[in-house]
Design a protein that fits this description.
Layout: H1 12-30, E1 49-54, H2 81-88, E2 94-99, E3 102-107
């Protein structure tokens, strides 16, 4: 006599949870847009920040990087950083901050 084999199918709730998990991943992959600020930070490092500090003769000045401890490209640095560097960098006559969305130049 042969022994009977018994296999149990997963319960219905298992298939519901599995479908939900797969559905969420497909939605994030195919439908949802690019992550936004304060959202998932996968794209936070994309872009650039270029800072140029010049003296009255137009020569580029080096400044202490500790003045700006952490430059994140998803922050708009063109609004307040040029004025700040004008006050903090000795001999600065002009400060230009450029990012992917535009640039701003301030005369000190």
């Amino acid at each position: 006599m042969e022994a009977a084999t018994y296999t149990q199918r997963p319960p219905v709730w298992f298939w519901g949870i599995l479908a939900t998990l797969i559905g969420i991943q497909l939605y994030a992959l195919l439908i949802a847009g690019v992550p936004s600020k304060l959202g998932f930070q996968m794209f936070a490092g994309k872009g650039y920040v270029d800072i140029v500090v010049s003296d009255p003769s137009g020569k580029r000045l080096d400044f202490d990087p500790e003045l700006i401890p952490r430059i994140r490209v998803d922050t708009d640095w063109t609004t307040r950083l040029p004025e700040y560097l004008c006050t903090e960098v000795p001999g600065a006559a002009e400060v230009t901050v450029s990012q992917q969305h535009g640039s701003r130049t301030v005369t000190c």
